[in-house]
Amino acid sequence: MQRAKLCSQSPLTPSNKRAKCNGNGCNEPCPVAKLCHDAIGGFSATLAWGASDRRVQVFHMFCLLCVGFYAILLPWVRPEWLEDNIKAEANKVGNTVEKQKNIFQVSVVVLAILNFMCLAMLALASRAMKSESISRLVDEQLVNGKFRDHFLKDLRKSYSISVLLLLLVVLIYGILSRLSQLPHPSAFVLGWSPAFFSAWALLQLLTFIRLLASLAMNKVECFYTELESVGNGCLEAHNFAKSMLPGQWLHLLREHQKLLRHLKAMSSAIFATVLVFQNVVAGSSLLLMWVARAYQKDAVPSTGYVLLAFTLMCSGIFAMLPLAFITDLCQSRRLGRRSLLNLADKYSGWPMSAEVHAEYMRFMQHIIMAEAGIYLPNMGMVTRASLSNQIMFYVKVLPLALALTVGWWRRG
Predict the structure, then answer these.
(1) Domains held by the chain: number
(2) Per the UniProt record, which residue ranges are transmembrane (predicted)?
(3) Which residues contact 116 (CB under 8 A, 6 or more apart)?
(4) So what's the pLDDT on residue 29?
(5) What's 22's DSSP letter?
(6) Widest distance between CA atoms in the chain
(7) Measured distance CA(117)–CA(276) in Å, rounded
(8) What are phi and psi of 107, to 5 degrees?
(9) Residue 21 located in a structural domain
């Protein structure tokens, strides 16, 4: 009941007082920028989508452009350390030096393209966070101090996870460079160190998705609490019949319609960003598979690249998991799973007056027919079941990918 009371409080900041990041000269940062600053302080400038200062965003985009052009120009400049490393790698995997140069050149061009896609992803994420729908959602959810503390804690946790993953990527890259026995391993790591900025841009989306999912999940939880409070305090069935007055189910129906509008607005705001993110992950995975095919004469790197591609594809699916929890809480039909649909169906056998029962049937018809949750045009409704199916598909494809790479190496 306390949570239902907190959820039902009206926002203290009306729309005409809400800070908007629309470039119209407003001095106040947008709600998301203020939230990021309160959560991680000065480090909020490292999140391009969470910063309202255009200088920060321009700096991110300039760095990504520089990294992209650096990757394209590196094969043409051909520094001495790069030539020596390519020759050593060619001798190790059994390729000619010219073929190894072509592999490297194609790889860096594809990486440059993916880097430019990361730039577009950050720009789209920043635009989504500054949209009216997201700003309104943030304002409505942060009125209560308890909810605000929860979002700040979740944002700090998400940011910490992204930083740790970036450090893990750098560590793995350094270890692999050492184990590869290249003539200039340190120079190779330093030469490709700007690419870590692109990896950080990709990891930023984890924080982006988790924050939006936390905001939307809290909205759904508020409605769940309100719906659950309908039967609170009714120890006997006849008590429920007396407590339910005409108009209550219609009120819940209207509140559910408001919830659907919020979820639809959020889905539309993040669709472009998520689409680019999925294309970057897919492109990176295909590049790793192509490199594994090129290294088929050496089983260890070939298998490693296949497993890395599999891990990357699965990571792209797991990144959507917070969005899937929202959809499942809205409309899951699985037995024993917590959802609005299962909760509403709990009242189907309870006694009601004819008028109240008619309203209840209207509410049930609406909640069954109206799809609720996060909808992405390229994925449909994002549910745990759909994500599990994609993971299982990758698991089934993995042995085939390993057979095609390691098997060809054994024949060669």
Answers:
(1) 1
(2) 58-77, 103-125, 158-176, 188-209, 269-292, 304-330, 391-409
(3) 64, 65, 68
(4) 62
(5) S
(6) 86
(7) 7
(8) -60, -45
(9) no
